[in-house]
Amino acid sequence: GDDALLGEFPYTVSLTHFDEHICGGFVYSNYFVLTAASCLIGSEWDVAVVVAQYSLILQDPEENRIQARTFYINPEYNETYHTNDLALIKLNQPITYGLYVNFSYYDEVNDTYTSAEVMGWGAIMDGGPPSTKLRKAIVSLPADCQSYGIEEFVLNTMICAGIHGQDRSSPCEFDQGSPLVQGDYIIGIASKNRGCGGNFAPTIYTRLAAFYPWISNVAGKQPIPPLMDMGDY
Fold first, then answer.
1. Domain range for residue 31?
2. What is the pLDDT of residue 81?
3. Which PANTHER family match (predicted)?
């Protein structure tokens, strides 16, 4: 992958456990963040969300750490196979939107695209620590996830992306929960893969549109953006 630009993905957040980055996620609304359920199992204490994060080391403009108040793990989540791998985090205080912080809408996969973009602070090599800067990568789709088996890959609730030999890189450890984006919409969040070295398998993402009823039931509808000032048009 490549380093992202400061403020390029204002909806992306870092999830921390005792101040250490563990996963990615994105801003759903001013009180809710979406991430992977697998990020939160076993990390029930002292989880915070960092908005406007770019560097894990330096303080960034508008960077703000907000404690998690409540976890909502999708009730269908299966810990063995990581199916329905989705969770909402309600925050202790609202997110303030700004130049480097904003929410993003999510939508169904657009089949006219042959790729999507994923961003996070994942390790740069198998077994490595998180990247100190937010990075991004283009991944090809659709990919073939049959190697995972029918228990682990369920097409109507998952997206399979990343083709070895075609893509330069793939998500890695610490990228779980990170958004998968097409155009202006998030279509999935990283759930699981099998390593990210030279011979990586495709990554499985949770297909967000499949969970629309549960997401809106827990977190309500997403904000409506302010109308653009069209001047005299």
1. 10-103+214-219
2. 95
3. BCDNA.GH08420-RELATED, SERINE PROTEASE-RELATED
- Is residue 121 within 8 Å of 131, Cβ to Cβ? yes
Task: Give the count of domains, the chain.
Answer: 2
Tokens 């909402």 locate to 88
Same domain for 142 and 68: no
One-letter amino acid for residue 157 of the chain: T
Tally of CB atoms within 10 A around 74: 20
pLDDT per position as a tens digit, 31-89? 999 999 999 998 878 999 999 999 999 999 999 999 999 999 999 999 999 999 999 99
Tell me, yes or no, if the pTM score tops 0.90: yes
